[in-house]
């Protein structure tokens, strides 16, 4: 599942390269054909996508802007799409259900900040071209590589947060209260 997004991004870049190569070799304006097809495919996918998400999974879309949550709120599994923006989720006073809660963050460029209670386990995955991450006091930097970090208490924790980020550039910060 984690590598699915890396494979998808890789396939998209290969297709983009092939279309560009064919366009150059045969002197064809591929953009005149590919852009409308891509827009139609994106529209169909956006209509079908909410049905693909599991029951109880939220969907949030922000092209430009920030998503901030703090205080008393209920954490649920959610897919968050952000073009360019910041996501700040302070879960120190939030109601986190037992078991694993998954947050999928997909975007172009953005910061993701999580503030967690001490007893919550966390697993962080990032599939980005550039990732700058600070997870529970440890610094990680990746370029064209995936990042996978799991807290020591993840397996034994009664409440778990799984953060999966797919982006072009991702800046991640995960801290405990």
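Sequence proposed for the structure above (177 residues):
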């Amino acid at each position: 599942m984690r590598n699915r997004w890396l494979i998808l991004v890789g396939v998209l870049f290969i297709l983009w390269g092939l279309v560009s190569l064919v366009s150059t070799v045969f002197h064809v304006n591929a953009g005149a054909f590919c852009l409308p097809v891509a827009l139609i495919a994106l529209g169909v996918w956006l209509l079908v996508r909410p049905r693909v998400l599991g029951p109880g999974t939220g969907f949030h879309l922000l092209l430009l802007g920030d998503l901030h949550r703090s205080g008393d709120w209920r954490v649920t599994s959610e897919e968050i799409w952000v073009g360019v923006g910041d996501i700040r989720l302070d879960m120190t006073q939030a109601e986190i259900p037992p078991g694993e809660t998954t947050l999928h963050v997909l975007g172009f460029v953005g910061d993701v900040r999580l503030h967690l209670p001490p007893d919550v386990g966390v697993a962080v995955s990032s599939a980005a071209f550039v990732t700058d991450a600070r997870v529970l006091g440890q610094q990680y930097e990746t370029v064209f590589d995936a990042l996978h970090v799991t807290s020591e208490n993840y397996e034994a924790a009664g409440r778990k947060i799984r953060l999966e980020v797919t982006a072009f550039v991702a800046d991640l910060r995960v801290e405990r209260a």
